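Problem: given the chain below (372 residues), write out its structure.
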Amino acid sequence: MFEYVSQYCTDTFLERPFGVEDAIVLAQLSYIKLDAFLKDFKKDSVDMCSLYDSPLRETLVADPKYKKDHMALLKAISASLRFKGLRARFYVNQVDTAEETQFSAVTFLLPDGMPFVAFRGTDETMLGWQEDFGLALKKPIAGQKLAADYLRKVAEFTEGPLMLGGHSKGGNLSLYAMFTVDSAIRDRVTKIYTLDAPGFRPEFIEHTDYDSVKKRIVRVVPKDSVVGLLFNDLSSKTVIEADAHGMAQHNMYTWIIKDGHVVETELSEEHLKSVRNFNQWVLSLDDTHLQSIVKLLSEMLDDTGAKTTVEFRENVPKYVKTLLKAAGDMDDTAKEQASAFIKSYVEFTFEGLKREVMDNIQSSRLSRFLTK
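Solution.
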């Protein structure tokens, strides 16, 4: 991503039209915290190229895991002629504990004025994790409805074509918004970029105008994708290389862009088989079982007391112990349901995890050999 922004920094959007690589950059920028800069939804905007040198720079990143990469991206953007004049507007960042909702969106105005509506994926809040369970296992979540309301507001304050997109949950939100707004707004949308984003249960798709929308959807997943293959058409996608394995590929900073284009590859048959098995298992459950599983998983996370994934990572032994205790306190039926979900999920991700472990073992052996 950094190399793409740097190598093509002098190419304007007239010289090099907007592409999936740019959508990846903007979706990543949607994770930047703009709370200190954008307070008035209707009036405020901020030059994204000015943020790296801002005295408020430390407020832009909440998760230290991504601080170095986020800052490197902002620095690259600040020196880029291609993104010069890129402005952020209509920023919303809402965390509602009562509603179990983590929702954020921002609209980037390209140098030519074209709006790109970016929905943020799961952030560092534990609420984000809990909300993700709902995406795959139950009916529309609050964040999806907020996304549709957000798109309506942006459409009200803008004119002409729109592009939508997002990473992970953000891609799902962009599609939900597209499906549920009225046709006048939907007709203005030229592209929807969903980046390793979960899809929807068949019963939801059946009640949408999917056939007229799908030709505008650009789906991108890494080769070990897990999240981006949940309830999705497995034949319609771009699969790209990444310099990581398993779940680590969900991080867009690992995606490989070379010579200005994402490096394409294919999913393995073993991985596709695991994906189909997991999707079929979840779809075989009735609403009662689905709601029960979501409730159990959410309660287990609640029992840890952690407010953010940062806090969770900083004291893993403590929180894992709490999770195990919560699991031990379940009745037999609950244990069976949670066990079935975890078993199916582990089988789904096993191939990527196995490759990651083997790489770590090989790396460790090489390290020991070099130090002898």
